[in-house]
Amino acid sequence: MTWHQALSDFKNYLLLERGLAENSVFNYSLDIKKLINYLEANSIAISPLKISEEILQQFIYEVAKVVNARSQSRIISGLKSFFIYLIFEGYRENNPMELIESPKIGRKLPDTLSIDEIDKLVNSVDLSIKEGERNQAIIETLYGCGLRVSELIDLKLSDLFFKEGFIKVTGKGNKQRFVPIGEVTQQYISEYIRNSRTLVPLKKKASDVLFLNRRGNILTRAMIFTIVKNLAVVADLQKNISPHTFRHSFATHLLENGADLRAIQQMLGHESITTTEIYMHVDKSHLQKVITEFHPRRIY
To answer: Which domain holds residue 31?
Structure first.
């Protein structure tokens, strides 16, 4: 079995059997390709079925010279998954990555925006351009519903249940969940649909897609990043933000206002509560408030 054949089979496995999103599959593939490139550059002719821990250890050592600990950890995780797949399919009996440890990395607290900063960004949208109402609706939806970029661009008209106060979101691994949507966000989306979306020449395959580009097609992830980055410049926001910043702000503001962590977990689509718990570290005043209000020993 060649590396390229093994990689192709692994990608199909991730897509079809594990149901991962294309972006996740791409990232896994990238990690395997780094190893393939290393082997080719060093004239190491060995198949994925025979490669040893020693060779992989040297590869990780070389990787550590050029990437940070977080990226190194991700590459190690991707390779471990690849060899677990080969064992699962009966191609190998052991995982050569099993004893290779990931570097310890500190938990990075997410960047957030204040409510005033979010309002400033929304108000900085140029409504004189065709995409103005769309861009406002995009920002409001990212913040109002806490969506990932991939979830936003895949959102469909048929996913909107405004009467019930929910939208249907397709998350990682094609898992679907219902997320509450507030009246303000509904209003921005409704105005965009009524006033601007109708003026776009629709492509048949994107007829049900909510947010469209000027050619009537689905927006790309890169375009959402560009919209956010450009707005930050116009608003003179002295922060390095991305679309994910709105998701972090959504969760943080809910927690600060007393929302239950489990409810936030469900709305964000986190499989594990430990992923959501990172927001407990963002604002320590919330923890003090919980003690002050609810602990039986709060008053002497």
So the answer is: 3-88
Among 141, 123, 231, which residue's Cα sits nearest to residue 184? Answer: 141
What are the pLDDT digits (tens) for 57-85? Answer: 888 888 888 878 778 888 888 899 999 99
Q: What is the pLDDT of residues 189-230, one digit of tens each?
A: 999 999 999 989 888 899 999 999 999 999 998 999 999 999
Instruction: Single out the catalytic residue among 11, 203, 244, 286.
Output: 244
pLDDT of residue 289: 62
197 is catalytic: no
Specify whether 248 is catalytic: no
Q: Find tokens 């407990």 and name the residue.
A: 280
- 253 part of the active site: no
CA 282/CA 139 separation, integer angstroms: 22
**Shared-domain flag, residues 214 and 281:** yes
Of 11, 120, 156, 270, the catalytic one is: 270
Q: Which of 148, 197, 248, 253 is catalytic?
A: 148
| Known catalytic residue at 70 | no
Mean pLDDT (the chain, rounded): 86
Residues 62 and 17 in one domain: yes
Active site residue 247: yes
Is residue 4 among the annotated active site residues?
Answer: no
Residues sharing a CB contact under 8 Å with residue 245, sequence separation 6 or more, in sequence order: 110, 111, 112, 113, 228, 239
